[in-house]
Amino acid sequence: MKRVGLVLGQQPYRSLTTLDFMQNEAFTDIRRAQIRVLQMLENISTLQCLHIKLALDRDNVCQQWIRVLEALPHLENLSLKSVRFVNSKVFQEILQLCIGYKRLAFTISGEKSQAREDSEQEYQDTKATIERMPEMHLQELSFNSHMGLYEGNVFQPLLERCPRMEKLDIAWLYHVPTVQHLSKALKEKKLPLLRHLTIGGTFTQTIQLHLAELLSYAERGMEVLEVDALSTPMIQSLTQYHCHSLRRLDFGYTGILLWEFSDLMASLSSLRSVTVKVNVEERNGTNDIPLDTHWECVELKSLRLRLETWNLGIVMGSPEWERSMHKRGLDHVFSEVTKLGGLRDLKIGWDQKDLYLMKSGYLTRLADLKQLEVFDLASAPSDEFGRNEALWMANNLPRLAQVYSHGASEVFKRTLLEKRPQVEIVN
Prior knowledge:
about 35% helix, alpha/beta, 13 helices, 16-stranded parallel beta sheet
């Protein structure tokens, strides 16, 4: 497959199948430059995949862009970013030309320039037209708009025209009705193939309750879920309906409690990749949280875990540390991680610098991770972290290929490279 960045003034390659054009917004005459590029694109009828950034707030640019889409019969993968507000009717016309596409990614800026925002009636007309459109062939849809009215009048009706959709990415959720609409579409089996869901802005309790409901309707089971926050009702839906299907889980922005995380890892047996933030804290000032649940996701390949201790202030190894919930939590995590023999990518973040010092005892617990290729130390270690730790890694992690050192000492780097010169150390 040929892939090239287009430079203004070059003769277009007539056999291109993939093209990225993310133009420099510093052009003195951005719209004239766009017209020239779009005119050239009309002649590349072989294009199958196009990534392009435009300013679709002028009629001449919009009209030329429509002509381009009409002239590309083989296009099936389109990523369009408009750096200016797009009239909803224009957007609807674009959609109608993309009915046979497999993948669409839209980023629509709310910046108005000199363009007038649509009236409520214009939005309603657009919505009605989209509702009457033929069903689209889309398998993947990514939608990112700062315009709330776009969610209700463009995105929501579009969902119901995509029965083949397997992957949905909503960069940021601005309105509760959108997740309600998505939940309703799943309940009514209008998105029967959806297996990959990414949603940003899922912080409010109301949205989380609707997401929990949504997950209960995804009857085939989600394979990938990426959200900013995970609530207890969402966890319950995941463990009840997706325990055998979910392969990737990412909610690394807002954390959950350690016992909830451990229950997830015990229930989601098909997990291959997890990115998560976990709060390690005592409950009501006590140290009685049960941590005897064993993780069942034995095929896990990637674990990127951030443990939050709410400004612990306890020195590792002190008598207070030995009695703390934080030590119990850390011991539990490492006792389960060491059983993940197929793990290839590991990051365990911790508030203290010396987690992986030999004297702390946690590094040596990773001795059974013989498939580990990427090891992220997660935070800047102290100067003590040096030769002994490097020698242990060199001798015990035979497939290690990349270490994120976060500014580890030169002694550590030099020793590791002496023993394993093929390892890449990323600062």
